[in-house]
Amino acid sequence: MPPVVQLQDIHRIYANGEVQVHAVRGISLDIHKGEFIAIMGASGSGKSTLMNTLGCLDRPTGGRYLLDGVDVSNLGRNERANIRNQKLGFVFQGFNLLARTSALENVELPMLYAPRRISSQEMRERAMHALEIVGLARRHDHLPNQLSGGQQQRVAIARALVNRPQILLADEPTGNLDSKTSVEVMGVFQKLNDEGITIVMVTHELDIAHYCKRNLIVRDGVIVRDELVKDRLIAGEELLKLHQAEAAAKLTAASP
Q1: Which among 18, 46, 4, 10 has a CA at the least distance from the CA of 224?
Q2: Are strands 36-40 and 214-219 parallel, antiparallel or unpaired?
Q3: Taken in order 121, 156, 142, 137, is the CA torsion positive or negative?
Q4: What is the DSSP letter of 144?
């Protein structure tokens, strides 16, 4: 099966006055269906530019980007918007939920921009199904301020899933979460990946990257390491350890 993503000698150069900044320098990369990849690197390494390219948010200066066999490198703004809406799902560090809108309505939002008109009944059914996948169907009528940070991120993940994307792109999805909630969110990602969804995630947290299957390290606009994750962390197992540690701490505190 051909890769779902093929980057072929991708370059991205930004003009900063008279100075040219080479953010990405000839990256070639294949991503196959069902992979779970973490992209890591220091600030200014080019990882965000690489993610923006994968998300059709930015066009490369040179090279080719094939998404599901289609060259999207030189598509216009509207064509790229359609690609983002139909084939890509986005999860960000900031949850970007509409404050006065219920979880269900937040998840429905991407369907309002779909090229094909979707009935209100189908929108509701698909949004409820996406919330069921992330375990929040019972809170579909809650506003964001009635949800915890982890629950808000789950709503954001459901919103990214509702148009049934081929690839889920996550930019620092645990950056605003505490350690336990971060593991819970990684559990959602692992479940989705086990069901066949391809996930590419930018993170600066080494422990979070260990929940993925493959790590890419970017430095000075090039991939300097591309390796499979050894001793991969499984979120369910890590949560069990956390619960056991919490229970032991309570027993210790309760003992005379």
Answers
A1: 46
A2: parallel
A3: positive
A4: G
CA angle 111, 113, 114 (to 5 degrees): 65
Q: What tokens were used for 116?
A: 């094909």
DSSP 7: E
Helix intervals (H) in the chain: 47-54, 77-87, 103-112, 120-133, 149-161, 179-194, 206-209, 235-254
Annotated domain spans of the chain: 5-254
Give whole-number Cα distances, 165 to 21, 67, 69, 133, 254, in Å. Answer: 32, 12, 15, 14, 49
Task: State the Cα–Cα distance between residues 143 and 139, nearest whole angstrom.
Answer: 9
Q: How far apart are CA 26 and CA 9, in angstroms?
A: 4
- Over range 237-243, report the average pLDDT: 92
* Cα 177 from Cα 181, distance rounded (Å): 6
The 10s digit of each residue's pLDDT in 141-199 is: 999 999 999 999 999 999 999 999 999 999 999 999 999 999 999 999 999 999 999 99
Q: Beta partners for 92?
A: 171
Residue 203 burial by CB count (10 A; 0-12/13-18/19+): exposed, middle or buried?
buried
Sequence-distant (≥ 6) Cβ neighbours of residue 118 within 8 angstroms: 111, 126
Question: Which region holds residue 34: left if phi is over 0, alpha if psi is between -120 and 50, else beta?
Answer: left
Per-residue pLDDT tens for 131-154? 999 999 999 999 999 999 999 999
Pairing of strands 70-71, 62-67: antiparallel
What CATH number does the domain located at 5-254 have?
3.40.50.300
